[in-house]
């Protein structure tokens, strides 16, 4: 009888239960403030703001930049829909760029070309994601951004804890970095995100917009009541709850351990699945943290995935290109062959289960079934 290997399971132990119990008992330190402080120190950034999700962190990034109608923001077409979504909420325009075929990250040479063709005061920023935990060439990215005078927003939803040339993602030079505590396309016990920046001005704007743009700085002294406030702009309800912060804090404190375990699992996959027919393994361009383990199936990807599911193995897809989405395809007249790299990758990629609580026995089971299916695949 086949096993059931879910695509993702969070590693939960007594730490999560202890922190949650402290919140429910109204004991211990405030978990939101503690998470922000520890996250800031870990990343090596000046400011960290806990928010309700990775998407809200990206949306607050647009608020902090004071994005306006008609402004333009560039992103990879090989991204989760929240990237262009946060741009469109301002009636601003996303501009899509094709991805690389190796790392699946944004193609920086094509980015440079797109920015050169769109020179305008309305061109405001580039949002760059780090696919599956493999960072893009940030040195080159920052050089391109400086040349074209645009801000850099890094979507580090897959790259929490990743390093680039010795520094952690979030402290290497981006104007704003958005993190997510819930893996993409997976249910998680708690939702949460983090807005990170070295700019005091951007931090203060994001903090203001995080909770309805309410300003109550005049209240709270010993001689004054603390319930007076003012609303100075249009904000959002993006603050993180203490319960979510408790769970996220416990998960964050195990981050390095989790990354180390995922690297072990990735190494086991690499050893067991090397040289199999029909399968191309991921390329580790350096300091890959394997938030996902993406393989390419040379033909009949969906059939391959169905055969794995018959054996109890759940798989994922990262990502369906944005120009396939009805909204963007219809609004901007995008054609299926406009981004050939993303099209080619989409037809092949599939993500295998990889998470810290996955046992060696289960990893070997996945490898056994992938090997079986690959050898029978037509």
Helix content: 25-40%
Cα-based radius of gyration, to the nearest Å: 22 Å
The number of helical runs is 13
Number of domains: 2
CATH architecture of the largest domain: 3-Layer(aba) Sandwich
Shape: globular
CATH superfamily of the largest domain: Type I PLP-dependent aspartate aminotransferase-like (Major domain)
- Helix/strand-derived category reads alpha/beta
What oligomeric state do the depicted chains represent?
A: single chain
Q: At the first level of CATH, what is the class of the largest domain?
A: Alpha Beta
CATH topology of the largest domain: Aspartate Aminotransferase, domain 2
Residue-averaged pLDDT: 95
Describe the overall structure.
The protein is of the alpha/beta class. The protein has two domains: about 15-255, Type I PLP-dependent aspartate aminotransferase-like (Major domain) (Aspartate Aminotransferase, domain 2); about 255-375, Aspartate Aminotransferase, domain 1 (Alpha-Beta Complex). It is about 40% helix and about 15% strand. It has 13 helices and 14 strands. Helix 3 (about 55-65) crosses helix 7. The longest helix is centred in the last third of the chain and has 19 residues, at about 255-275. It is globular.
